[in-house]
From TrEMBL:
Protein's UniProt keywords contain Metal-binding: yes
Protein name as annotated: CENP-V/GFA domain-containing protein
Pfam family, any one: GFA
Species for this entry: Salipiger aestuarii
Transmembrane regions: none
Domain of life: Bacteria
Origin organism lineage: Bacteria, Pseudomonadati, Pseudomonadota, Alphaproteobacteria, Rhodobacterales
SUPFAM superfamilies xrefs: Mss4-like
Domain CENP-V/GFA: 4-121
Amino acid sequence: MAGLTGRCLCEAVAYGLTGKPARTTICCCRFCQRATGGAQLILPVAPMSDFHLTRGGAASYTHVPEGSGKAVHLHFCRDCGTRLYMTYARWPDMVGLFGGTLDNPTVVRFDPTTTKQMGWMAPAPGVAMRHTAGVRICN
């Protein structure tokens, strides 16, 4: 999975990842739903040292979630508004890539230890699920 690339809708901002993501998370918490405008966020997370912008520059919005109380920085294209990646006060050496911005999203692999799905979603193939407070969590 090394050599991932991605871009925004208007292609003004593009990025590359020289290494391999440390993990990929599927999250459906309210923060991730609001950040994406969808039911879930698919987020390959990688070392910041492997990430680089290859075209343009991203604007950012900082949000402090109630859960952790630590700032999350959402980076997006100032022209088309596509959210491209997240950086974290909590993990300053990591970057999370919005999965929908990947040029080849089919290369993403899911980590059963970090994957959360809503109860109405079908489980990822080969992943055992358990229920916790209405959310299915991968075992």
